[in-house]
Design goal:
The chain is mainly alpha-helical. Helices cover about 70% and strands about 0% of the residues. The protein contains 15 helices and no strands. The termini are far apart.
Length: about 290
C-alpha cells in the first residue's frame, strides 16, 4: 500500500514563506512543547526560592502597600471613592501582566538562542509560552484582588458596585496579552541586531507605567494636568485598566470609543510584531 504524501512526513521546510504566515497549524502540532515551556518557565523561576509561588502574592502586596503610602497618604491623590489598596491593586495586576509579557518576550531570541539554533519548531511557540506562563501568575494575583475586594465589601463596608461591564474581563486579558506580545516581538526582533534597545526596555518599561492610570484615575490626570493628560488618555493600556475598574468597581472613566481605540492599536501592533518577527526569525542566528 502506497503512502499519501502527507503521510511520509510531518514537517515541510520551504525556502520562502509569507511574512503573514503565522504557521498556526504547526504551532498547534507543537502544543505539547508549548505546555512544556510553560511548565519550565513556571518551575524554574521559583525553583531556588524559599517562599516559592508565595512571591505571586508578596510582590503585588508590597507594591500596593507602597503605592497606598506614597500616592494616597502622602501625595493625597484621589482614588475616586475606591479604597486605595483596591484601586492600586486593580491597576497593578493588569500592569504586571503586560510588563512581564513585554520584557520577557523582548529578550526571547537572546534567552533561547541555544535552543533556537539547534532544533526546528515554530518560533512563535516561544513568545506564546511566555504569555501563557505569565497568565498563570496573573490568575493567582487576580485571586488576591478578588479576596481583597471581598474583604473591603464585607468587613469595611466599601461602596463597590460590580457592573455588567465586568463581562468584558476576558476581552481585556486578550487585549493586554496581545499588546505585550506584539510590542515584545517587535523589540526582540530589533535587539538581535541592536543590543542597546535591551537597556532602554529595562528602565523604559517602569517609566511607561506612569503614562497609564495605574496610580491615579484618568479624570485626575486630565483635569489637573491638561497639558499632557492626552498622553495618558491615548495610551492603549489606559482604557483597559479603566474598563477593568469600571467593571469591578462601577466607578472609572469608561468609554467605548477609547476601548475601541485600544483594540485597534493593539491589533496593529500585534500584526506588525508578527510580520517583523517572521522576517527576523530566518536570520536571527547570524546576529544574536
Amino acid at each position: 500500500m502506497s503512502l499519501q504524501p502527507e503521510e511520509n512526513w510531518d514537517i515541510e521546510i520551504s525556502p520562502q514563506n509569507s511574512l503573514f504566515d503565522l504557521r498556526l497549524k504547526d504551532t498547534w502540532h507543537y502544543r505539547d512543547l508549548l505546555l512544556l515551556l510553560v511548565r519550565r518557565d513556571f518551575v524554574s523561576f521559583y525553583k531556588q526560592t524559599i517562599l516559592g509561588p508565595l512571591w505571586f502574592f508578596i510582590q503585588p502586596a508590597i507594591t500596593v502597600a507602597i503605592y497606598t503610602l506614597v500616592f494616597s497618604n502622602l501625595a493625597g491623590i484621589s482614588t475616586e471613592g475606591i479604597p486605595a489598596p483596591l484601586f492600586y491593586l486593580a491597576g497593578t495586576v493588569i500592569w504586571n501582566y503586560f510588563s512581564e509579557c513585554l520584557t520577557k518576550t523582548s529578550t526571547v531570541f537572546k534567552d533561547n538562542s541555544a535552543m533556537l539554533g539547534k532544533v526546528y519548531f515554530p518560533r512563535l511557540i516561544m513568545p506564546l509560552s511566555i504569555v501563557f506562563s505569565n497568565l498563570i501568575r496573573f490568575a493567582v494575583q487576580f485571586l488576591l484582588f478578588i479576596a481583597l475586594m471581598l474583604f473591603f465589601v464585607f468587613f469595611k463596608g466599601a461602596n463597590i458596585h460590580i457592573t455588567v461591564y465586568v463581562l468584558l474581563f476576558p476581552l481585556l486579558i486578550v487585549l493586554i496579552a496581545a499588546l505585550g506580545l506584539g510590542l515584545g516581538m517587535i523589540i526582540s526582533a530589533v535587539t538581535t541586531k541592536y543590543r542597546d534597545l535591551a537597556f532602554v526596555v529595562t528602565f523604559g518599561v517602569p517609566l511607561l507605567m506612569y503614562t497609564t492610570t495605574v496610580i491615579y484615575p484618568l479624570s485626575t490626570a486630565i483635569n489637573k494636568y491638561p497639558a499632557y493628560g492626552w498622553v495618558i488618555k491615548y495610551n492603549p493600556i489606559t482604557p483597559i485598566i479603566e474598563t477593568f475598574r469600571y467593571g469591578f468597581f462601577g466607578d472609572a472613566s469608561f468609554s467605548w470609543g477609547l476601548l475601541g481605540y485600544s483594540a485597534g492599536v493593539t491589533a496593529v501592533i500585534l500584526l506588525l510584531g508578527i510580520i517583523i518577527f517572521n522576517k527576523v526569525e530566518k536570520t536571527f542566528v547570524d546576529t544574536v
